[in-house]
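User: Show me a protein chain along with its predicted structure.
Assistant: Here is one chain, sequence first, then structure tokens.
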Amino acid sequence: MDELLIVTTGGTIDKIYFDDKSDYQIGDPQIGGILKELGVGFRFNVIPILRKDSLHITAADRELIHAAIAAQAATRVLITHGTDTMVDTARALADITGKTIVLTGALNPARFRGSDAEFNIGCAVGAVQSLPPGVYITMNGRIWNPNHVRKNVAANRFEEA
């Protein structure tokens, strides 16, 4: 892999909570710091596109994400995204050809002890390097086709749709 393009959109992975998960902000992207701490053996470039909870991502935001990725020369793209509408964004990117695009996020903020962020990022990094061109979601230790996955809010995990 020459260089991994990382696009950040906000979501829980980058949230900072101020009081018992009720008042929050989307903070700086965490993925660059996580990858540096882990000492990864590849180059990466982080492009923050949005700082939004995914429930607030609009069709216009998805067009912006699409245009930004399509305009980049990189053929391997990892996107950090909120989990509630990750599937919608993945489906909106389906017509981008010649690139392997993997979306991931976290069910708990990366700043929280015991967060699934590092695990999901690790799975996504492996997936983006090994999968053929297309769009994928990596959550809960699995790689999903965006057309066959949903977030089970009650169970707080992704599952086959």
